[in-house]
Specification:
Structural class: alpha/beta
Order of helices and strands: HEEEHEHEHEHEHEHEEEEEH
Helix content: 25-40%
Strand content: 15-25%
Mean pLDDT: 90
Strand order of the largest sheet: 4-1-5-6-13-12-11-8-9
Number of helices: 8
Number of strands: 13
Radius of gyration: 18 Å
CATH superfamily: Class I glutamine amidotransferase (GATase) domain
CATH class: Alpha Beta
Length: 256
């Protein structure tokens, strides 16, 4: 064991918080690319006992492997739309595209986290990244492509909607939530999972049948949810979700 590893073991034994990597949105609309994110994600992680860590959307060789080695868990956050070319389609509906640089970064850090056995909490756009990473596809626009949908986002861009979700009994998500099988969530999305990626399971749906949660078969530490728990800190389900995720990250640390 080298000196650096010895020091990390000492810090972990002394109660060092699990480090949670949090992906950032990327804007390329101005001359300079800007990484940004609402503070709510970091606040939810910190209040659950984790140490939030943000990384820029850079794809330099070796950076993602080093980033994954640094963290104990990964939150894939919300954001704009994934270009349909990532799941073999052309644009067929109105959308606001996330830069491919962010998509490539998210896909690579997700794969790195899973290969390293780290827990993953994939939220909204993050859940869609998770599905696409395993070969799944997306509805490009719920309103025009799903018959009779409920309101999944507010009447204005970015405004949240409120609706219930039903959790699949015996799913990993149901276990994390202590058996809570139906509750109200904060929702701001116009896209959704269409065809599931290989090895993924549905763990929650909305009343109109839209897939609201996914998880990996045989790997209960990777959970995807379509709603925004970070925007709903007063919800019991939100607290349980973040607390369970941070606890998994603590147990998964390479330095314990």
């Amino acid at each position: 064991m080298d000196e650096t590893h010895r020091n990390l073991v000492h810090l972990r034994a002394g109660g060092m918080k699990p480090r949670i990597g949090i992906t950032l949105e990327l804007s390329s609309k101005s001359e300079s690319c800007i990484n940004f994110l609402p503070l709510a994600y970091a606040k939810a992680v910190e209040e659950s006992g984790g140490l939030p860590v943000h990384f820029p959307s850079l794809l330099k060789p070796g950076m993602i492997a080093e980033a994954v080695a640094l963290i104990d868990g990964l939150v894939l956050t919300g954001g704009a739309d994934i270009h349909p070319s990532y799941y073999g389609e052309e644009i067929t509906a109105p959308m606001s595209l996330s830069p491919n640089q962010r998509t490539d970064f998210d896909l690579n850090i997700l794969r790195g986290a899973l290969e390293s056995g780290k827990p993953v909490l994939a939220i909204c756009h993050g859940m869609q990244i998770m599905n696409v990473a395993f070969g799944g596809t997306l509805y490009q626009d719920i309103v025009s492509q799903i018959p009779g949908p409920i309101q999944h986002r507010g009447m204005e861009e970015g405004e949240p909607a409120r609706h219930n979700v039903q959790v699949v009994p015996d799913s990993a998500l149901a276990g994390i939530l202590g058996g809570m099988l139906e509750f109200e969530v904060s929702s701001t999305h116009h896209q959704a999972v269409k065809e599931l990626g290989k090895g993924l399971l549905v763990n929650a749906r909305s009343p109109d049948g839209t897939i609201e949660g996914i998880e990996m078969s045989g790997y209960p530490k990777a959970i995807g949810i379509q709603w925004h728990p970070e925007k709903d800190p007063g919800s019991e389900a939100s607290r349980k979700l973040f607390q369970a995720f941070v606890e998994m990250a603590s147990r998964s640390s390479l330095f314990i």
